[in-house]
Amino acid sequence: GKVVAEVNFTDSPTSDDVYGHGTHTAGTIAAIAPECRLMNVKVANDMGKCEPSVVAEGIVWAVDHGARVINLSLAMTPSSNLEEAVNYAWSQGAILIAAAGNKDTSEPSYPAYYENCLAVAGTNENNSLALLSSYGDWVDVAAPGFNIYSELPENQYGYKTGTSAAGAHVSGVAALVFSVAEDNNGNGMTNDEVRWAIENSCTSIIVDGVGQGLVNAFEAVTKTVSLT
């Protein structure tokens, strides 16, 4: 009952999530921000593969239909179309949360590397890097990304590991912060306040290449409220 819109940009005959990745991601977001509403923007085919130009289309469609938080639990090569879509969404007041990728290197991943995306690395239960998580000075924050339990298609549940799950955590936090954020600098938008609050409320962890540290939902919301 949380999905308020859906669109299919792939050659799949259905907008439903056959692969399971999107459902798992959405489940985490909705668990963290239970009052949020979801848009099912299908940009990956039924094998989980997607192209930058298709992702760009999905981003533009989402923001044009009112999306405030755009979760990009995917990683690919750079693309001018993709970067333009990211910049457009940010200019329209959306915040874009992108997985840092699962290459276990500091090699940049896209769209996470773009300036107007919040790049998220994954951590494990010991607050170390999760298995295969990318890292680097281009990463902004970290979030849980190891053995994350969430929904799967056909009313199933299961565990997944990766920065996709980490990104979902931050998208959920972003939704919470949006619910209390106000336009403090008078630019007509609150996505910049939301990003600032998330980045400046992190819990410090002893891991290199994870930006400001581990995302902290309570502190992010508290910091935002204190500014309003």
Annotate the secondary structure layout.
Blueprint: E1 3-8, H1 21-32, E2 38-42, H2 52-64, E3 69-72, H3 80-91, E4 95-99, E5 117-123, E6 141-144, E7 148-152, E8 156-160, H4 163-178, H5 191-199, H6 217-227
Parallel strand pairs: 1-2, 3-4, 4-5, 5-6
Antiparallel strand pairs: 7-8
Helix pairs in contact: 1-4, 2-3, 4-5, 4-6, 5-6
Describe the structure in your own words:
The protein is of the alpha/beta class. It is built from six helices and eight strands; from the N terminus they run E-H-E-H-E-H-E-E-E-E-E-H-H-H. It has a four-stranded parallel beta sheet, sandwiched between helices. Helix 1 links the parallel strand 1 and strand 2. It is globular and about 45 Å long. The two termini are 31 Å apart. The relative contact order is 0.15. The mean pLDDT is 97.
Short description:
The protein contains 6 helices and 8 strands. The protein has 228 residues and is an alpha/beta fold. Helix 2 runs parallel beside helix 3 (80-91), helix 4 (163-178) crosses helix 5 and helix 4 (163-178) runs parallel beside helix 6.
Q: Choose one word for the global shape.
A: globular
Gyration radius from CA atoms, angstroms: 16 Å
Structural class: alpha/beta
N-C termini distance: 31 Å
- Average of pLDDT: 97
Number of strands: 8
Low-confidence stretches: none
**Helix segment count?**
6
Biggest sheet strand order reads 3-4-5-6
Q: What helical percentage do the residues reach?
A: 25-40%
- Strand proportion, as a percent range, falls in 15-25%
Order of helices and strands: EHEHEHEEEEEHHH
Largest sheet: 4 strands, parallel
Oligomeric state of shown chains: single chain
